[in-house]
Amino acid sequence: MAGRPMWENPLRAPVAYGRLAVPQLFAELQSPEPEKKLRALASLQDLLHDPERLYPTVTKGYVEKMKLLLEDEDPSVRSKTCEVLGLLCTHSLGRQVLLSSPLLSSLFWLLDDPSSPCRKNVLRVLKLLTLHPSGADALLTLVPKLLLKLQQQQQQEEGEQISVEEEKKVEVNEEEKVDEENQQEQREGLKMEQTEEVKDVKEEEEEEELLVLSLISCCSRRDALPALSSDAVSVLKPRLTHPCTHIRREATAAMMALSVPMAGKHRLCEEAMLPLLVGLLRDEDVHVRTNTVGVIMYTVITTAGKLQCLKLNVVSALLDLLTEAPPFKKAPRLMEEKERWTRKALVLYSLRALTSLAEAPEGRRLLMEQLPLLRRSCEEEEDAEVIRAAHAAIEVVTWTP
């Protein structure tokens, strides 16, 4: 029996030449054998990096043929199909075609897939769809389901924490009864193995949770009302103090999107979220601090938001952020552009929040004492937008009837 040629990749299907490549691979995808499907999908994924191959795949109706692959019994086939769709969604044309195809309902269904890699790949595809405005609109109906997933995961984590505490109590009782060293060593070794397994599972869960939060944030920027009607504020609240920095970052970004409409501002005040948010102003991550200041900036537009923030001494915290952030002309020139924009957003949000707080008598009184600091920050700046925001804050503070 002849062996496999040395040049042939066992993980890839042979690819025909030129225009026949894509039709040939889609013909192999009709095979009942999962291995052949996976090899064809891997080769198709390689081909679609070339825009000349991607265009006919999208325009000649091949995308619709992938619906059956999303319903395949093999989880690896479903997951790999989502990877291919994710590659298509990196192009604007691919996103438009997928939004108008019947595959969208199948992707929604796969959010509850038992396979974790499949669920994560689906979330990545949906996240790419939100890059198109019509994609965010199409996914707004999905927001309540995403929030429900977060709520269920939170309940599961609380249940696991309770079970871990009970196991510790049982172990303590057993150790009081049994003093044999060999049994204790076996328990410790087993405990280490279980800890590593739990750690891996926890990392996978955090990655999936991060994708869900990012998707909620993107959809809420388009329209926050579906999330607010599903009690998103209380669902997101535990994520604001999560030990993972990236989850806190996405949770505060979603909370910022929820605080834009008036209903969101009132909900934040009613749910007593501001004390928790004020604590995040001292978070170690600059993105978390920036998003938190953004939430406060939107919330202090309301009278209730102003009064609560003044009681929490937010003015001094915002002034501290202004003094900590270096002006543009003093910032390192080698600083990455993204970091510079994050720093600019932090300063702008802080100045606008202070401007709103200065509309209250108590806020104006506090800021009058810090007027030299505001003027100095204005003089040291070279960014026009930051200078305008600083001038606006000074005008409101120094306004007299």
TrEMBL record:
Annotated Acidic residues bias: 173-183
InterPro entries reported in the protein's UniProt record: ARM-like, ARM-type_fold, RSP14
Disordered, as annotated region: 157-203
Basic and acidic residues bias (residue ranges): 184-202
Protein name per UniProt: Radial spoke head 14 homolog
Annotated organism of origin: Gouania willdenowi (Blunt-snouted clingfish)
